[in-house]
Specification:
InterPro entries: Flavin_OxRdtase_Frp, Nitroreductase, Nitroreductase-like
Family: Belongs to the flavin oxidoreductase frp family.
Number of helices: 9
Pfam family, one: Nitroreductase
Strand content: 5-15%
GO molecular function, one term: oxidoreductase activity
Distance between the termini: 44 Å
Number of domains: 2
Number of strands: 4
Oligomer: single chain
Largest sheet: 4 strands, antiparallel
Helix content: 40-55%
Strand order of the largest sheet: 1-2-4-3
Shape: globular
Keywords: Flavoprotein, FMN, NADP, Oxidoreductase
CATH superfamily of the largest domain: NADH Oxidase
């Protein structure tokens, strides 16, 4: 592999869940937020926003929603949001109707692209934070209670929560989590034929199971963790409860999935 400081930053990223109790200075915050704004945006719609959670009571509520107490201790806490509400206001100022039946930016494709743009912005901010010696953890757990999150953050119609990001000075140094063999995720020209895909899984996942199992054993000897393939099988056999169904919550926010 070739390398430089950016590549080293990306290769050494790890989730940090314990932070030093020190605030992040305003210049660093301005830098992180500006970097996020420079991420790619589909059709230049700028269809995402990020809410910085500063109030401690609200941080506590986020920790309650995410079922992770460390969320409340993060010096910087953001919720990234797919945001077609701002564009609706702009469209209305130009005389365009923005009721759900008429508003073109409420369609399923736009919902998907706005989510993509929010993730790209979050990733840019995360990478910048790591490059400055900070630590981060991405918080998909905040989607445990989408309705509660929408209420807590006062999210209007045509917005939807995507991911949270906690940032701070690291107070831990966890080992790098293993990644699966590259040829299980990167393919040339087409997805592998079914037989080839099954063969690759059969031949390579067993060894990866051992690597992942060793990683978890060394990280926490008091709490054994299932092998990678067993984790996949366990999650695959579970049915999502209604709270995690995306369509009803997104439709309640004004997005349409019939178009």
């Amino acid at each position: 592999m070739v390398t430089n400081s950016t590549i080293e930053t990306l290769l050494n990223r790890r989730s940090i869940r314990k932070f030093i109790d020190e605030p992040i200075d305003d210049d660093t915050i301005a830098t992180l937020e500006t970097v996020a704004q420079h991420a790619a945006s589909s059709q230049y719609l700028n269809d995402w926003s990020a809410i910085r959670v500063k109030d401690q009571a609200l941080k506590d509520r986020m920790a309650e929603i995410g079922h992770q107490p460390y969320i409340a201790t993060a010096p910087l806490l953001y919720m990234f949001v797919a945001d077609e509400h701002r564009n609706a206001l702009i469209a209305e100022s130009k005389g365009v109707a923005t009721d759900p039946a008429s508003y073109g930016l409420s369609a399923s494709y736009r919902f998907s692209q706005a989510n993509n743009d929010a993730v790209l912005a979050l990733h840019a901010m995360e990478t910048a934070a790591y490059s400055l010696g900070l630590g981060c953890v991405i918080l998909g757990s905040l989607l445990n209670d989408v309705d509660g999150l929408i209420e807590a953050l006062h999210l209007p119609r045509y917005t939807y929560p995507v991911l949270g990001l906690a940032i701070g000075k690291p107070d831990q140094s966890p080992a790098l989590k293993p990644r699966m063999p590259r040829d299980l995720q990167f393919f040339d020209d087409r997805y592998p034929a079914e037989e080839d895909a099954r063969t690759a899984v059969s031949e390579q996942v067993g060894a990866f199971d051992q690597t992942v199992h060793q990683y978890y054993d060394l990280r926490n000897t008091d709490r054994p963790v299932d092998a990678f393939s067993d984790q996949i099988a366990k999650i695959a056999s579970q049915q999502m409860d209604a709270q995690h169904h995306v369509l009803p919550h997104a439709e309640a926010q004004g997005f349409r999935f019939d178009k």
